[in-house]
Amino acid sequence: MDRKIIVVTAAYGRDCIAALGGQAAVLPIIAAAGADGVEIRRELLNGASPDELNALAHAITTHQLMACYSAPEALYLDDGTLNPAIPALLHEASQLNADWLKLSLGHYQPTHSQFTTLQQWLARSQVRLVIENDQTAFGRLAPMQRFAADSRALKLPVSLTFDMANWLWVDESPEEAAHRLASSVGYIHVKAADVGERGVRAIALDDAGPRWPALLSMLPQDVPRGIEFPLQGADLTDVTRHYVSLLRKE
Asked: What CATH number is given to the structural domain containing 42?
């Protein structure tokens, strides 16, 4: 199976990205490591101006990578209304030539009128929407499951980003979540975490136990896999290549 492997730029760390000169600087590393794509993080841009996005889109195309655009925004605001910034974010993702826009769920309050509005927004864009379980109460299993079921019933072009470790931050079972949500998953954030006295922290797969491959086997095998655990070392290309190869085979 030709699995698509995406590298999340944030895996290199904010300080590393800044020292290298921005997210465009890691594109040659990601491409040389044999990955299929990159997840660009809006919070690591200088402002997401059209010029910045167009330049980044050109660099991504030059390195023959596919793209995901991740914004630190929720689909629903705290009062349960749709985030009015979504059309602008879809436009930014389009400027980047991204295949999909990744958001968190937020305070989901299902109403017919809001689904109609969301349908209209998505119909105007070629960019698909993927909703991630984040590290807040809104990213717990119950609201994610309810949103997935409602989206499926209304045939919305929306799928889930399953972050394998974020469940631990909200005290949920990743395995139970995989059992309940697998059919709605369109993108996987591969991440392992250590739970200790200081809380939960993301760790590299080589430093984790057997839980992550077992969990990964419960999820769809034909959706893109994103590397979101720390990528660190003297040779970032070698480190990235190691995990790209591992996830393509696993």
From this structure: 3.20.20.150
